[in-house]
Design goal:
Aspartate Aminotransferase, domain 2; four-stranded antiparallel β-sheet; single chain; Aspartate Aminotransferase, domain 1; 14% strand; 471 residues; 2 domains; seven-stranded mixed β-sheet; alpha/beta
Length: 471
Amino acid sequence: MDNAQFRHWAVKAAEWGDDYRKSLRDLPVRAQTAPGDIAAQVPVSPPDTAESMETIFQDFEQVILPGMTHWQHPRFFAYFPANAAPVSIVAEHLVNALAAQCMLWQTSPAATELETRVLDWLRQALGLAEGFSGVIQDSASSATLAAVMTMRERALDWRGNAEGLSGSPAVRIYASDQVHTSIDRAIWVTGIGQANLIRIPTDGDLRSMRIDALERQIEADRQAGHLPAGIIASVGGTSVGATDDVAAICAVGRKHDLYVHVDAAWAGSAMICPEFHHYWQGVDEADSIVFNPHKWLGAQFDCSAHFIRDPNSLVKTLAIQPEYLKTHGRDGIINYSEWSVPLGRRFRALKIWFLIRAHGLEGLRTMIRNHVRWSEKLAERLGKEPNFRIVTQPMLSLFSFRYEPDGVDDLDALNLNLVNAINDDGRIYLTQTRIDGQLVIRFQAGQFDCTEEDVEAAFDVICEMAGKTAI
């Protein structure tokens, strides 16, 4: 591809993206293909000779697009969003054109220095204390893995990386059963082991970790010869928004000298609105915090903000400095590859810079406040309908409900059929979860271009499909 062809196809791709965004409401939200449909249209062997871009682009539209679930659809109410504000996409075009590997300061000084600055912008926007430093990770899973590794090394007096875990006491990590499965994977990857991820029971409307049970478990583990290392608190858990008492957990952490990590992957974005700060009161006492601007703030995936009280502990855990990665003659610089598990790093800071400047914090606050308000109105309206029960009240813009008409023995099967019927219909997209053993349906508003009319349409679809659904 020469320069002229590159310009032609780059422009065509950008124009296609504009047309795609404009047409999203006309598309089913979830892919309507069956397993294997796409693979059946792709040759089993690679081509030996070059194919034309016209053919490749045509196949993209005819083969790939029908198999895509449209995460930027305004009626995507499933999981949590993976937002891509248009200005963020423009920034990503530039990042892709630069194609820089930003692992060290010297490999692109602007990427490192902008990352430092925009992470401090986010810290200020969230109202976090000045003592926190920030780094952009690819996902909350990576940030949590880094936090768990730091917990492990700190508890083992920095011997784990060098000596392994054999012969050491069992390292214990504490969390509720509402935390994301990325915590389980971090426990696996760090060698701590699933048996040493101790689940603390929850209670209350927010399904918060019980502090009394946490304290008793830590003390019992110490008496048994185990090595308590850290606590992972949840703010806005994936299932139904479970939120721990962060202040109380941090107090327990200080008392027992444990590292506290706060997982606010989704809900953290809402903390740019001061009225929601009560959900993580005491967060300034945590050792690390993660939230995903790519979930609810509009920064294109992937982009996870990881704040650390003591970066030296993180660097001590993760940094490897062979001669070829050293930057000589530059004191005081930051090499963010030493703050993350991967060595390679994309220029993720640019899209945050574009996003905040183009919308302003107040514009982003308005979006989040609207999503919360519209979701609350939908929950209230749905709760007044016959045969519907709101199982968990809105936590920000997330709530769950259950369809419970009289005369049905297997309500779990009915609700599973309902959510499948809704998604097969294609006008909106929802997901299910389980609460106290019962299958319930989740709703969350958070897509960047969502309107109040889109949320109101969800009510119509839910009620219409419920009337048509049977076991």
